[in-house]
Please model this.
Amino acid sequence: MPMPMPIPSPVPIVRRRVNIPFDSATTCGWLASEKDIEDVLNAVSFVFPPGERFFIRSVQNYQDRISDPELKEQVKAFVFQEAMHSKEHARANARLAETFTRGPEIEEAVARSLARVSKYAPRASQLAFTCALEHFTAILSHNLLRWQEPFMEKADPALAAMWLWHAVEEAEHKAVCFDVYREVCGNGVFSYLHRVAAMMAATVLFSYSIFLSVRSLKQSRKERGEPVTASVDSDAKEAKPSRGLTQILREIVPLQLYFDYYRPSFHPWNTDDSALIAEWKRRYRDYAPIRDAAPAEA
Model:
């Protein structure tokens, strides 16, 4: 299988210092008009801190084998961004855990599972697994950024800021793991089948983890005596029917974008998010809790 021409990133991977004020954030009903999506995003948030640390390790395993100088710099920026994501989601989760008392159990379970993967899976498989999960986060980010204006209007400001900032950075670095995988594993038939098999495994594990996590968070709602089956449309002032988790996942991870990964010629930048990133930059240009890191801080 011939090596496709590399696709250069159309946007820089920016190092940002982030310290979002979560103290006054609404923890239950922070996206009241879309409570089903709120539950999924909360579940994903509790998964992220150990997940981001796993992503960093899987790429750092191959730092000494990267020969392309531009890719080396992108890996450094990727590690910086992922470390910041882990930090901010951990801070947000501490606030969310005041309402969703089972949230820390989710983090601990994911951390144990990924520790086993790190211990027993070959490093190439860990990297392929990370590429697959990065594809999920890239799709989720693409859809959040397409929805950024209504999301900002309907969601708690602090949590909206966190999710849209995270989405932008996932879009900026969405090709880094994939490009590292191609450099160290090649683009032959075996490496293609390997990444596809990793995607199949990641799909099962990701879906199962989100299912269990959402169920756990809904149980937290029940324990507090809160409704778990309806959203409230702030404009219509009426309850919206609940949707099943499968339907929600298909909305935030459309099948067409998901199955793109199975094409031998796939590259993350086949879907160009540069205009969506530019839109976010215009909106958040003066938002002090998110700022570019000074060169000395990078």
Summary: Residues 1 and 188 are 5 Å apart (CA to CA). Residues 189-223 form the longest helix (35 residues).
